[in-house]
Amino acid sequence: MIDLPKRFPTLSTKRLCLKIPDKKYIKEMTILANDKEVSKNLSSLPYPYNEEDAKKWIESAMKKFEDKILMSFVITDKQEGYYMGNIDLIFSHDHNHATLGYWLGKPYWGKGYMSEAVRELIRYGFEVLKLHRIASHHFHTNPASGRVMQKAGMTPEGIRREHFKKAEVYLDIHDWGILREEF
Length: 183
Hints:
- The protein has helices at 26-33, 36-39, 51-66, 113-127, 143-151; strands at residues 11-12, 16-19, 70-77, 83-92, 97-104, 133-139, 155-166, 169-179.
- The protein is of the alpha+beta class and 183 residues long.
- It has one domain (11-182): Aminopeptidase.
- The protein has an 8-stranded mixed β-sheet with strand order 1-2-3-4-5-6-8-7, with helices on both faces.
- Helix 1 (26-33) crosses helix 3 and helix 4 crosses helix 5.
């Protein structure tokens, strides 16, 4: 069993804070998530996205943390505190590993924010949670996400061809992973 903290941590990087989901971010989350360009890259983000979706996500994330299933963080600007996106680890306790997932609002794309957040969550996963492995994946239509994983030190592990169907289109899934010893 992965030894998760009893209290939700706040993680900090040079420009970002990764912290507990809070209902105060519902409005910003709704605006950023209600974007076709963001939604098309994610398997689990509905479009259109409304405030009720955001509220349910926050409640679900907190329940899943209590149940030791996952840790979902909101990504905020360290100085100004505004909401930018989400990042999470979904745990496999039997195998001591986690799957990393994330999304960022379109105004923040291409500025290195997600690479910074991913590196910090990988550090936390290995150094604090003592995970053995962290995996992630992206659709073939989102090579920018692959670059984020590569910058974080992850290794490409394969392609699941036409593995996911979204909006009647079959998408390839590119798998990535990193072991603690490689970090």
